[in-house]
Amino acid sequence: LGIILLHFQRQEEAIARFRKALSIKPNYVAAYVNIGNTMQSLQNFDGAIENYQKALGIHPSLPEAHNNLGVALRSQNRFEEAVIRFENAITLRPTYADASDNKGVVLLELGELDEALACHYQALLSKPDSATIHYNIGNVPVSYTKLTLPTIIHV
User: Model's pTM, two decimal places?
Assistant: First the structure.
């Protein structure tokens, strides 16, 4: 029922349904992940992080929870922690394109341009038709130009 409520943009009611499921089955990992996803969509990043961590406490080898936790951490500018979560997701599922792409986005924000580009290209191997990944690849040279242009001008 929680998933259906989400399709109708009734996030608070969906969270209540997921919590009801947890009251019946306290180790229901999918409920924690869905609460985390819903809270993240409501920009409640602390709540999202808490629920992803609970999911990982029960099932530490769930790549989606690591990836989603990384996205929530990135939203709080906790970039180094986010990178670790994306790396965990990639270790668990080497072809996890979203985790590789997300890692690339964060590495770009950290100024690690070569590593960012490598992550985006790695993601592209698994999802060659992803517009988002192609867009993110395109952002790397633009950012590189912005970062190096003042150096070139002052030389």
Answer: 0.86
